[in-house]
Design a protein that fits this description.
Two copies of one chain form a homodimer.
Chain A lengths: L10 E5 L2 E9 L6 E4 L11 H8 L3 E5 L15 H14 L5 E6 L1 H12 L4 E7 L12 H7 L6 H8 L4 H14 L11 H14 L17 E6 L8 H9 L3 E6 L6 H4 L1 H13 L6
Parallel strand pairs in A: 3-4, 3-5, 5-6, 6-7, 7-8
Antiparallel strand pairs in A: 1-2, 2-4
Helix pairs in contact in A: 1-10, 2-3, 5-6
Chain lengths: 282, 282
């Protein structure tokens, strides 16, 4: 082990004129697992129970997209552009192949990345996310809260968890864990918010046959969501599983967009089963 | 351990005038896991990899419904009637609580059993199944093949597995495992086929608010299916998860009705995670 979520130093690597901030920790062997973060989020918006849990079996790499928080440059205004940045970052680290875990807009980026750079991706984990040009969009109130200048704990409890007492309590526990690290990355800018909003808007547009690109994602894939995600409606996860040829779906009970933060131990166990499975394993 | 799928002797217990055939094996401690079988199936239609895998952590109990194969009596003509028989059987064994794994029509029975005998059921696993009065029914060709007088290997490969080479190969491997035991239970009769078909027909009828009873199933539940089940369409599993308050859904890739026989090791691992979780575990 080389460090943990809390202790890993923030490092930087230059690629295509951007200085990318990242942290690498966990096992020194195994296919590295690269995390693609949610709307506006950075290095410190993950859950230490999830990242450290998965880092037991492989190196974990967290990074900021171009323009996010401590990364330099500007956030791309398309999902494909963000995936191009991810590919430049991976190559700059000298890695030939990674596993990818993408959450929310990070799941859009992960799909584009796996589809357009298939040689770089061994396996794929798509969390709280959906396909290009999905069937439904969230309630306008959701978008309003997600755009608050400084997202608060209450915003996250509303956006990422179900209204039940158990889910809200799990959300508060996550919020505490997510702040355990002292030297938190700075928040991302309003320009980054605007660029990512543009990328989400572009992702909602049709391109070719609906869901056609999903048939071309050949990596073993795990799709995960909560039972009632109000940000990226849960049915989108079902759609992903139905169209990606080798995809397993897991939906957790009484949960929302952040189900992996509500059930971190189960999530780590479920993801580990898929990442550790050999090809064709029954 | 007291025996295995292959070695456990067939025992009998009398309840409400029926002599039920059953086999019990595996761990001597833990909440027993009772299996409710599919259309026309009996003690030998399970997969030794699944039953022995789950028996490592708890006693496993396989049984035949009344009228099926080596059980005496007549199969009930409603799902509720079949669940009443299950309750009589459990009480005759002197058990106060069990976990239940129901497959296909056995999943219908498991829902009725958990809903109407909640004190008898700790946790629920619903495989390749759907709710009362679900949205769609299978293709008529499926029903025709399922009614063949003597179901063949080819029938099972068509009904339980996807058409892909990998799924068909997994199906043939299952078929070999399923015949490893020498003293196979006799097949069930045409009268039993007719009674179970009537029970399925009754289950398709509305009763009260659609899916309303699912909200009253309070047990922690795992719903499992293949990505494209032609017998009980996969969307029914999504519906179950969306309406049972504490339900997790797992859909496996490139698979059909018998996904648990295609991915027996993953299935055992996934079911074990849910059965072994303590209440409220994250």
């Amino acid at each position: 082990m080389t460090g943990t979520h809390i202790t890993a130093t923030t490092q930087f690597v230059d690629a295509d004129g951007v200085r990318y901030a990242y942290r690498r920790f966990g096992s020194e062997t195994g296919t590295p697992l690269l995390f693609f973060q949610h709307f506006r989020g950075g290095l410190d918006n993950w859950d230490p129970l999830v990242t450290d849990g998965l880092a037991k079996g492989r190196p974990v790499i967290l990074f900021n997209y171009a323009g996010v928080a401590s990364s330099s440059g500007e956030n791309a205004t398309t999902v494909d552009g963000m995936a191009d940045g991810g590919a430049a970052f991976v190559k700059a680290l000298g890695l030939s192949q990674v596993d990818v875990l993408g959450f929310s807009i990070g799941g859009f980026v992960a799909q584009s990345f796996a589809h357009r750079y298939p040689e770089l991706v061994r396996k794929l984990v798509l969390v709280g996310t959906g396909p290009r040009n999905g069937e439904t969009n969230p309630d306008p109130k959701v978008l309003q809260v997600a755009g608050n200048p400084v997202p608060t704990e209450d915003d996250f409890l509303y956006l990422f968890f179900s209204p039940s007492e158990a889910s809200q309590a799990a959300g508060r526990a996550f919020w505490a864990r997510r702040h355990e690290r002292k030297d938190q990355d700075p928040p991302s800018s309003i320009d980054t918010l605007k660029a990512q909003a543009a990328a989400i808007g572009e992702w909602r547009q049709p391109r070719g046959e609906r869901y056609g690109y999903l048939k071309e994602i050949r990596q073993p894939t795990l799709v995960v969501n909560g039972s009632n995600d109000i940000m990226v409606p849960t049915v989108h996860s079902f759609t992903l599983q139905q169209h990606i040829p080798n995809a397993q779906l897991i939906l957790y009970p009484d949960s929302g967009h952040g189900s992996q933060f509500q059930y971190p131990r189960q999530f780590v166990a479920n993801v580990t089963l898929v990442l550790d499975a050999t090809v064709g394993q029954s």
